[in-house]
């Protein structure tokens, strides 16, 4: 039974409500809201579940958050809610770290193999009914740099290593004995190390330090035969510099799942450039992922409701969950 001290939960979800919320609804007053009604939903709310994790509506509605103690976002990235007022507040922020690790790693392995074996070229020739023999590249022995050493980056590293690639990482701290990457280079040395790698995979969280880190200088430092893969955030890349690098043959190709502007405009050159694979922000979305996101939230809600420590607590100054938390 819902009683007088029942917590109030606001859920930012738009038209698509999260599944499997009945258990939470039995112990909380749940207010489902789209972007326009979020301020009203936040008044008197104790917690906010940002189920629509691509929405940027929270900052504008924050003025109405008069009782809020906890925000949970249904994604690993927290940049849509990482605004100054939230950083400065006592509100606890948690994310959905762990849900997408393996599926994103599978996507990355898939595009690496697609590039090496020219699967897009084979599909194009098949559509033309053309029998054109080509030689393909080996994956084994190629070198990959995973920029971002969180759980998703580690899952990518393990899968690429199992396929025979030689993998290194890039993160805040340099180290030589990492169990998944072996060597981890410091992010400050990105341009220095880029010439060493055949595949560069961007999966870093979006922070002031990582925004635009892949720019003209970075692409000029890469091998002409290198491929760039972005499964992190679109804003990690200066898109115009990437387009120029691809057009001028400074890099051999790119697989892009995230973009500065989403959806990617239909007239954008990335749709038609040679050597580019475009997917609509779906690298982590496996069958049943929405249910899994709610399971993660429901576990944390039960912890929060009973006064136990929350999982996946974000360090609001760093912008991500520190290792070991």
UniProtKB/TrEMBL annotation:
One of the record's GO molecular function terms: oxidoreductase activity, acting on the CH-OH group of donors, NAD or NADP as acceptor
InterPro entries associated with the record: D-isomer_2_OHA_DH_cat_dom (IPR006139), D-isomer_DH_NAD-bd (IPR006140), NAD(P)-bd_dom_sf (IPR036291)
Residue span, D-isomer specific 2-hydroxyacid dehydrogenase NAD-binding domain: 110-283
NAD among keywords: yes
Domain of life: Bacteria
Organism: Amycolatopsis acidiphila
All residue ranges annotated as the D-isomer specific 2-hydroxyacid dehydrogenase catalytic domain in the record: 17-314
Gene3D superfamilies: NAD(P)-binding Rossmann-like Domain
Keyword terms: NAD, Oxidoreductase
Protein name: D-2-hydroxyacid dehydrogenase
Sequence similarity: Belongs to the D-isomer specific 2-hydroxyacid dehydrogenase family.
NAD found in the keyword field: yes
């Amino acid at each position: 039974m819902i009683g007088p001290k029942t917590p109030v939960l606001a859920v930012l979800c738009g038209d698509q409500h999260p599944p499997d919320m009945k258990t939470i609804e039995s112990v909380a007053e749940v207010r489902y809201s789209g972007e326009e009604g979020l301020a009203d939903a936040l008044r008197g709310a104790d917690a906010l579940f940002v189920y629509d994790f691509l929405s940027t509506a929270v900052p504008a509605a924050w003025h109405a958050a008069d009782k809020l103690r906890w925000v949970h976002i249904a994604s690993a990235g927290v940049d849509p809610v990482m605004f100054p007022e939230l950083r400065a507040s006592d509100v606890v922020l948690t994310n959905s770290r762990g849900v997408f690790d393996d599926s994103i790693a599978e996507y990355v392995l898939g595009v690496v193999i697609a590039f090496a074996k020219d699967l897009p070229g084979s599909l194009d020739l098949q559509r033309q009914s053309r029998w054109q023999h080509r030689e393909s590249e080996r994956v084994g022995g190629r070198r990959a740099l995973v920029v971002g050493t969180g759980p998703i980056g580690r899952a990518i590293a393990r899968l690429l290593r199992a396929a025979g690639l030689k993998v290194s990482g890039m993160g805040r701290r340099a180290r030589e004995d990492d169990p998944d990457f072996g060597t981890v280079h410091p992010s400050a040395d990105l341009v220095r190390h880029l010439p060493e790698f055949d595949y560069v995979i961007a999966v870093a969280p979006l922070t002031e330090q990582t925004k635009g880190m892949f720019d003209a200088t970075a692409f000029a430092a890469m091998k002409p035969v290198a491929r760039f893969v972005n499964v992190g955030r679109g804003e990690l890349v200066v898109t115009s510099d990437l387009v120029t690098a691809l057009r001028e043959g400074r890099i051999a190709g790119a697989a892009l799942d995230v973009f500065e502007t989403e959806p990617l405009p239909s007239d954008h050159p990335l749709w038609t450039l040679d050597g580019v694979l475009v997917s609509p922000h779906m690298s982590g979305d496996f069958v049943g992922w929405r249910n899994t996101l709610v399971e993660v939230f429901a576990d944390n809600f039960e912890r929060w409701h009973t006064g136990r420590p929350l999982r996946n607590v974000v360090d609001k100054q760093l912008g991500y969950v520190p290792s070991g938390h």
